[in-house]
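Consider this:
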Amino acid sequence: MAAAATPASVPGFSLTQPRYDQGNFSGRFKHFLDLADPRCLAPGVFFGMTLEQSAELIGKYKSNTLAPADRDVEKLWLAKKIYTAATHPDTGEVIIQPARMSGFAIYGTPIMVGMLLPNPSMASTVFWQSINQTHNALVNYNNRNASQPTPISKILQGYAAAVVASVSIAVGLNQLVKRARVSDSVRTTLSRFVPYPAVATASTCNMLLMRRMELSTGISIKDEEGNNVGISKVAAKEAIFQTAITRVVLPAPLLITPPIVMMALHRTGIFKSAPRLALPVEAVVCSLAFIFGLPLAISLFPQEGELPVGKLEPEFQNLTTKDGKPITRVFFNKGL
């Protein structure tokens, strides 16, 4: 069997390591800002490089067949950004646009605007919460740790439970708000904040149910060179724990910031002469919340988690590299 080609060596670029330091929040924020960049949905238009071209360039880098003109560091980082934003880190498969981090702002904004409409009817609440959890299910499935298979039945159970949870919480809170003995203005204000606890609870429930199989099967762990060293349930538990915290925090900038901004704008009276501007302005505010709030929330933890070997199962305590050196830390795809 022919030996695998050695990847090209271009100073300042790495295919296996993120561009920004993942050891601090600033570096993680920049990393996820790249992943959530809506321009990656149409990279040929905005960057002059299509997804196919980025994949071809990455392939040439791996096979060490880069042309001199392609050995530009910025060009390689751009290709990696476009490719990473559109493909799954475990499988390399292209993710459908609505389920990509880069598609969150475009596809999620109309849903968020619908959920934030003041004084919603029960039908409106059920509709928008159901649509939101359908979108969440797509995102959860396409950005999961895919090192181990997940039965479709488990995915459907997670989706159904999330829809029931979000609708139940949102409808229940809206009914409490309607029955509260407060002024109409206060009632309207309270109704705008109902989506957050509903979405935070349901999104976490959705993720836990869809990924609970990982707790019993474990997930793949790798050494510093990216070599698979086994399947660990401890790593799976850590990955799900970190993702759960992220799912609680994630809706906050998306569902709390826009109502606060819109209430402040309404108090200035700028919409009195042009009330039709309120909805498009809210859509812009929601889009900005997605573009910056999403990376902010998921930057709490690196996408690639790591654990000291000492915290893993007994069978991993004496791991060594191909050179016989002891492995002290392992890495895993946390999922998003």
About this structure: DSSP finds 14 helices and four strands in the chain. The chain has a mean pLDDT of 84. The beta strands are 219-222, 228-232, 304-308, 329-333.
